[in-house]
Amino acid sequence: MGHPPALLPLCASVSLLGGLTFGYELAVISGALLPLQLDFGLSCLEQEFLVGSLLLGALLASLVGGFLIDHYGRKQAIFGSNLVLLAGSLILGLAGSLAWLVLGRSAAGFAISLSSMACCIYVSEVVGPRHRGVLVSLYEAGVTVGILLSYALNYALASAPQGWRHMFGWAAAPALLQSVGLLFLPAATDEPAAHKDLIPLQGGEATKLGLGRPRYSFLDLFRARDNMRGRTTVGLGLVLFQQLTGQPNVLCYASTIFHSVGFRGGSSAVLASVGLGAVKVAATLAAMGLVDRAGRRALLLAGCALMALSVSGIGLVSFAVPMASGPSCLALPNATKLSGLPGDSGLPMGTSPPPLPTTSVNQGEPVLSTSEETGPHPRARDPTTPPLPALSTASSASAAPAPERPLLHWTALVCMMVFMSAFSFGFGPVTWLVLSEIYPVEIRGRAFAFCNSFNWAANLFISLSFLDLIGTIGLSWTFLLYGLTAVLGLGFIYLFVPETKGQSLAEIDQQFQRRRFAMSFGHRQSTSGVQYSLIRVSAAS
Questions:
Q1: pLDDT at 509 over 90
Q2: Which residue ranges does UniProt annotate as crossing the membrane (predicted)?
């Protein structure tokens, strides 16, 4: 069955613009936080609350968004999320107090979380198997573009009076463009019609799919009916391992990690982080080209294996580099703002603001102001520079500079880039693609949102525990622990995650129904266990 010529470009624009909005809202705070602190005199706790308010809204959306998506439809959910985003942008643009800022950021978080779920589900249902992988993965590419766009606008508006108001306001532009594109797209695919043409030859309950739409309750996600429990195991496993491998910390604390392993100059750490962003773009584009050829399972296995090796490599490198750590908080926005590095994603759906620890660049001398500490630097007060939460090096024992070890510096850089690439063509786009495919259409929105809520919660836990974990067991053992988790994730993918490339949503649904034990996916990835016969249904029938 073909698609109208304009359908694929319009679906691509919906996916790309949805990701762009997500990435922009996620990263724009990095440039807005410094002028906000100057205008409102925000304390460290207030900065932390403002940055975290986006997460609060996103968590709320992940809890209720699934019911909205299933009840009102995917297209209407996207429209609704864009309206909420417009309201949030307006509140932020006119905000005169911290309370209004928090309200606006919470609304933006709710909107981008709801939109991210609805976009992935909508695109996966509207397009066919040949294009589903690349178009859903395009959302991840949009996240990267949005982050880079936020940096560009932050730079352009840095010196403008009340420039932060414009930074927040521009988030409405891609949302408006996406809404215009949606006007020319159908409401949803006719899923029952897709089932009607697919008749399994082995009999059983699946043969009755064409006779009526099954009904699912939320509790069915945990029952054996239609192997829903197995599907939920796959979905939760992917989102949890996506986060428990430490990607929020490895990526959001990139500059900090480079500084810790020897890149002492501020510009060196920033350049390293910019390099990571470029690598993410390239890896995401590679994933888009491979996801419908190599397959979802192959990308997940390769990505998780490389993540295990690279994050363990970072841990081993840090063994050879002396460092001290001790997390605390400092009301210095230029050192505590969210990086917005194109590394989260997951998400597209799962990046949370990191905690706000102390920055002590001068090895034991706390930084009191940006201008005092980095006066000679022309970029010291540039709010577009993506500084990240730094590990506190307040120990007086670390006052002596670390010996120069160029080989270790470059090893850490390579490991970080490999980790970024592996996540960007594995867990990053494929997790959400698989989640949009494996559930029946009647409960797909609620199931996706349920898994997404665990993604946000795990992200928050990993981000908030990072500095405490470093203070307890050290940076090296922290990353080695993440490496061990990635190895466990590799085993999970091999045993539980099926291959879904080239299959219609109806075929994927019946594949799950026929296989009662998810572990069988690890050994047989073909659909030979279920034979199908495509019959022609006349127009008169």
A1: no
A2: 49-69, 81-102, 108-127, 134-156, 168-188, 233-258, 270-291, 298-321, 410-435, 447-467, 479-497
> Pick the residue with more confidence: 515 or 378?
515
Confidence of residue 254 (pLDDT cuts 50, 70, 90): low
Domains of the chain with bracketed CATH: 1-187 (1.20.1250.20), 219-323+405-516 (1.20.1250.20)
pTM for the model stands at 0.70
H/E stretch holding 328: none
Task: Tell me the DSSP string of 267-303.
Answer: HHHHHHHHHHHHHHHHHHHHHHHHTTTT-HHHHHHHH
Average pLDDT (73-91) is: 94
Question: Are 277 and 339 in contact, with CB atoms under 8 Å apart?
Answer: no
Rounded distance between C-alpha atoms, residue 484 and residue 451, angstroms: 23
**CA distances for 357 relative to 61, 238, 344, 360, 464, angstroms:** 28, 29, 19, 10, 10
Q: Report the largest interatomic distance among the alpha carbons of the chain, rounded to a whole angstrom.
A: 85
pLDDT, tens digit (0-9, with 9 covering 90-100), for 255-286: 656 666 566 665 555 565 566 767 888 888 88
Burial of 16-41, coded b for 16+ CB within 10 Å and e otherwise, reads: bbbbbbbbbbbbbbbbbbbbbbeebe
First and final CA of the chain: distance in angstroms?
Answer: 18
Give the residue-averaged pLDDT of 486-510. Answer: 90
Closest CA to 29 of 49, 59, 58: 49
CA 391 to chain centre: 24
Instruction: Identify the CA nearest to 355 among candidates 51, 58, 53.
Output: 51
Across 233-249, b (16+ Cβ under 10 Å) vs e yields: bbbbbbbbbbbbbbbbb
Partners of 349 in the beta sheet?
Answer: 346
Supply the pLDDT for residue 302: 95
User: What pLDDT is recorded for position 531?
Assistant: 41
For tokens 């009662």, the residue is 516
Can you tell me whether residue 342 is helix, strand or coil? coil
The CA radius of gyration of the chain, in Å to the nearest whole number, is 23
Q: Give the pair of three-digit tokens for residue 48.
A: 């932390």
CA separation, residue 78 to residues 73, 83, 180, 467 (Å): 9, 9, 11, 36
Residue 271, pLDDT score: 61
CA 436 – CA 124 distance, rounded (Å): 6
Q: Could you give the count of Cα atoms lying within 13 Å of 200 in the half-sphere of its Cβ?
A: 22
Report the distance separating Cα 100 and Cα 104, nearest Å: 6
Distance CA 277, CA 283 (A): 10
Q: Is 248 in contact with 256 (CB distance < 8 Å)? A: no
Q: Which two tokens stand for residue 203?
A: 């009999």
CB 356 within 8 A of CB 51: yes
